Amino acid sequence: MDNPQAPTVSPSRFGEVAIAWIGLYGMAVVMGYGRFLFTATLPDIIVQLGLSTAMAGWLASINYIGYFLGAIIAMFVPQRHTWLALIIASLISIVTTAALAIPDMSLFIWQVIRLIAGIASGVAMILGSSYVVKHFSMSRRAMLSTIHYGGIGVGITASAALTWSLFAMGYHFTTIWWVAALTSLPLLLLLIKIRPSATEQALESSGSYVGTYVATKQADLSRNQSDSVQTLKPSSIGAKLSQLRGVMKAALANQGYVITLLLISYGLSGFGYITSATFLPVMATQSLSSGSGQGLSGQEAGLFIWLLVGIFATFSNPLWGRLARDIGEFKTLIGLIILQASGMFLPILSPGALGLYGNAIILGATFVGIVSMTLGIIKEVNPNYSNLLIGLATLAYAIGQFLGPLVTVALAGKSDNFNAGLAVAGGGLIIGLVLILLIRLLPKSKSITHYD
Q1: Which of 8, 89, 219, 329 ranks highest by number of CB atoms within 10 Å?
Q2: What percent of the chain has pLDDT over 90?
Q3: pLDDT tens digits, residue range 348-371?
Q4: Of the ranges 314-318, 323-327, 398-402, 441-445, which is most confident?
Q5: 327: left (phi > 0), else alpha (psi -120 to 50), else beta?
Q6: How far apart are CA 378 and CA 145, in angstroms?
């Protein structure tokens, strides 16, 4: 990932606000379409392809495996190649979106496409955020970052609106994926417009975190010729692994326990939210008739519920940012996890429209906030390695997302009852909450200093 010492580079052709909106568009494409359009179209995919719930869950999980791999790849992209890797990943995301419009593909090809789409989403999400946010001045970073990350909610909203409108016109998922790909193409032109100039590239560091660590060590050794440690040579695999261990040790220095608790809790957050984020429209399609769905068919009710998730995800994050400014990120995160966990139990306690709508609203209102708060906390643990720590957190989150659908469909069984999956998801969030609370019990000397 990016060099923590890299200088901030000002955009040469666009202002900060324009960069933020381009970032929003990018997040909507690679996350909203690349990942969550699958959720909106899943009920139709199940019907048209004759899939079982178990196979649908696997198609979701394999995308999260790709996201996990993409996060790893992004961690080792040299700074000077960030923009190039971003535009390649965005292109792949759009191509894989279009590929799902191809009729009569085997399930194996579907799995390959969803895996590649996940890799592209992971790379583009991390590198896109790194590339966009670095253009913001410190005074405007909080506000403009909210615009950028709001692209996740915008993408979910767009996926629901696109799916609903094309369903109403009699089209199926193949057309929806094709239209999504076409409406994503302008992103590539905008990314070309914000490519770094030759001067900006000259200011960029040429190394990933591993390269930065090696360069730092070599500089230290050159200043102290009596040092008995030999100069690191990055030519062998063993040396690279040794360097990676050195980077990790430096990033975790004196805060390993805190970071471990944060990473496990964040992984459980990924596990907790993904049951609803994958199967909520399916649950609504199964359980809501025209009467219980407020005059909507089951399919329409499912899409309306997914639309609610996107709307609340889009507009809630600025509110959490303001709350975090007043009471702190740590307390805000605790409240968000409690709220999201309670939302998982709503469909169990109140079957039908009320429970599902409540779950959708709470899911949309909390999941982006949990991401934002957790990453905001973890980057402050060791600011010089903030991007590496964010990469590790993304890996933990991806693991949780991979396991969530598999556990849910296993518990659903042949009856396709998602209540057990929702209960386990809520339980996972509660365990994550306990781990976060344990950090508050640490001595101040061993804990992060800004959680109050």
Answers
A1: 89
A2: 38
A3: 998 888 899 999 999 999 988 898
A4: 398-402
A5: alpha
A6: 16
The tokens for 125 are 């999400």
> Cα(330)–Cα(209) distance, rounded to whole angstroms?
27
Tokens of 165: 């409108």
Domain 249-440 has what CATH class? mainly alpha
Place of tokens 């996740």: 152
Question: The tokens of 290 are what?
Answer: 């025209």
Pair 150, 314: CB distance under 8 Å: yes
Q: Do 103 and 79 contact (CB within 8 A), yes or no? A: no
Which secondary structure element, helix H or strand E, spans residue 259, and what is its range? helix 256-287
Closest listed residue to residue 26, CA positions, set 150, 157, 174, 173: 150
The set of residues, in sequence order, having a beta carbon less than 8 Å from that of 362 and lying 6+ positions away, is 339, 340, 342, 343, 346
Tokens of 111: 């799995």
Location of structure tokens 């039908």: 352
In the chain, list all ranges with CATH 1.20.1250.20.
12-203, 249-440
User: What does the alpha-carbon distance between residue 75 and residue 30 come to, in Å, rounded to a whole number?
Assistant: 18
Q: What is the residue-wise DSSP string for 108-125?
A: HHHHHHHHHHHHHHHHHH
Say how far apart CA 372 and CA 321 lie, in whole Å: 8
The tokens describing 436, both together, are 């976060």
Which of 63, 160, 156 minimizes the C-alpha distance to 364? 156
Q: Over the stretch 155-170, which tens digit does the pLDDT of each residue have?
A: 999 999 999 999 889 8
Q: For residues 272 and 117, what is the distance between their CA atoms, to the nearest angstrom?
A: 22
In the chain, what are the helix, strand and coil shares in percent, each to the nearest 5?
Answer: 80, 0, 20
For the CA atoms of 52, 54, 59, 64, the dihedral, rounded to the nearest 10 degrees, stands at 160
Q: Which of 11, 4, 34 is nearest to 100 (CA)?
A: 34
Q: What is the pTM of this model?
A: 0.77
In angstroms, rounded to a whole number, what is the distance separating the alpha carbons of residues 353 and 362? 14
Amino acid at 107: L
On whether the CB atoms of residues 381 and 256 are closer than 8 A, the answer is: no
Give whole-number Cα distances, 173 to 9, 49, 170, 186, 310, in Å.
41, 10, 10, 22, 19
Please tell me whether residue 81 adopts helix, strand or coil conformation: helix
C-alpha count within 13 angstroms, C-beta hemisphere, residue 288? 28
Integer Cα distance of 167 and 41 in angstroms: 10
